[in-house]
Amino acid sequence: MFGKISEKYMRLTRMLLAIAWLVLIISMFYDPISFKFTSTDQFFGPHASCFQFQGQCLPTSPYRMGARIFWGMIVPLVIFLLLVFGHENWRRICPLSFFSQLPKAFGIQGKRIVKKNSWLDRNVPYLQFCFLFLGLCIRLLFVNSDRLLLGWFLILTIFLAIGVGFLFNGKFWCHYICPMGPVQEVFGEPGGLFTSQTHVAPKGITQSMCRKIDAQGREKSACVGCKSPCIDIDAEAAYWANIRKPHRKFLIYGYVGLIVGFYGYFGLYSGNWNFLSAGVWNETNQLATLMNPGFFIAGKAIGIPKLLAVPLTLSISTVAVLSFGLWIEKLVKRFQKHREILSPEYWQSRAFAIAKFVAFNLLFFMGIYPTLDYFSPLIRLFTILMAILASSAWLIKIWKLSPSQSRRKVPSLRATNASLLSEV
Ligand code: SF4
After folding, report:
1. Considering only Cβ atoms within 10 Å of each terminal Cβ, which end of the chain, N or C, has fewer?
2. Sign of CA pseudo-dihedral 69, 72, 73, 76
3. 350 located within any domain
4. What is the pTM of this model?
């Protein structure tokens, strides 16, 4: 659906979002307003005057909302958009992508692209997963609620994205570095609920493919072949092309593990499951907590510093869920061996669809729903219904997809990329 919107409007949207993001970053350093909304009697304030943390009830105090707006509102909204509208909407309006493409806008973008089958090309899924893992550790340890550190972290990320855009051609930042890349692949492949179909794309410009506007104002492909298969050209084709590769299992089951570990850690750290809804945003000096006990379990603080407890939790949860996913796959395969009903790709796609459905609902019920207590019960009920409805409709859509159906719809991916490249 978003693939058809003119690049002129998308550019404007990207730019406006980038400006809004810069304003939010500035608010991390100077914000004379938002703390007025976070005292106990205000809309975003907690319902109690103290919050449970490691066996004590600590007083809540008004805080500035920059970090909460970024992590508690914008990031979940992006994930919801990915599921509903597919990767193509976010890839075309992402402010960080906008910054990484600034060198291109000024004609100073590098010419390097990653060679097909090079080490980087083969290992990028693992590498990007490591970046996501690292990003989540940084968030839990330094920048989740400490808005000054978050401000500097975001500024650094923007400079990094611009630097990468200066050195490499195409969307190197999005495909090879951005920690949100794996999340986009999990929820954006093979497509969102309303992803546009590539075989009916006007003028062969599909989904979130790189494009330019020529002197006559016509939209043309600007693809330089920086990635093949490319999710921006055809998310469904990229999905089927990679589906049997071992890194897909690692990415999808590992991602479910990261969600469990990430949101579970708030409970393991504070000793209760309400910390995320009330107290977490009050921890505004995260540097001071790094060497404090990282776990509080069954009423006892465990002497592992938070600095170690966070990567430990995320590692254990990733390995545990990944192993569980592989074990379940083996069990089902053993059962299915005698039946020979589904092709391996079709079978794998259904296994991934269930894992992604679980991932989305874990994300919603463990991480997003507990932070929505400022809404009335009716609105919260509505968000639950929306989350369940959207993820169920998405699951049904993916469940029915098959590789043969996809092959009939689109020419082979190689042909698609080759024809695009010939237009450059
Ligand atoms: S459309 Fe082409 S240039 Fe753009 S990200 Fe995909 S492969 Fe790279």
Report:
1. C
2. positive
3. yes
4. 0.91
* Residue where the block lists tokens 């309006």: 93
Its domain, for residue 171, covers 2-33+63-422
What confidence tier does 34 reach under pLDDT thresholds 50, 70, 90? very high
Residue 57, in any domain of the structure: no
Please report, for residues 40, 183, 365, the alpha-carbon distance to residue 43 in angstroms, rounded to integers and kept in the order given. 8, 31, 21
Regarding the beta carbon of 231 and ligand 1, being less than 6 Å apart is answered no
Q: Establish whether residue 79 lines the binding site of ligand 1, counting it when its CB lies within 6 angstroms of any ligand atom.
A: no
Ligand 1 centroid distance, CA of 170 (Å): 6
What is the distance between the alpha carbons of residues 294 and 296, in angstroms, rounded to a whole number?
7
Distance 280 CA to ligand 1 centre (A): 39
Closest protein CA for atom 1 of ligand 1: 209
Those residues with Cβ within 8 angstroms of residue 271's Cβ, 6 or more apart along the chain or in another chain: 52, 53, 54, 55, 296, 297, 299
Q: Report if residue 48 sits inside a domain.
A: no
In total, how many domains does the chain have?
1
Percent of the chain with pLDDT over 90: 67
Please report the pLDDT score of residue 292 as a whole number. 96
User: How far is it, in rounded angstroms, from Cα 371 to Cα 73?
Assistant: 9
**Range in 104-108, 175-179, 215-219 the model is least confident about:** 215-219
**DSSP, res 114:** P
Say if ligand 1 is within 6 A of residue 88 CB.
Answer: no
- Would the CB of 233 count as within 6 Å of ligand 1? yes
Please identify, by atom number, the ligand 1 atom nearest to the C-alpha of residue 113.
8
Q: Crossing angle, helix 344-362 and helix 181-188, to 10 degrees?
A: 120
The encoded tokens of residue 171 equal 């969307």
Question: What pLDDT digit, counting tens, does each position of 357-409 carry?
Answer: 999 999 999 999 988 888 899 999 999 999 999 999 999 999 988 877 666 66
Which of 19-23, 185-189, 410-414 has the least mean pLDDT?
A: 410-414
Amino acid letter, 180? M
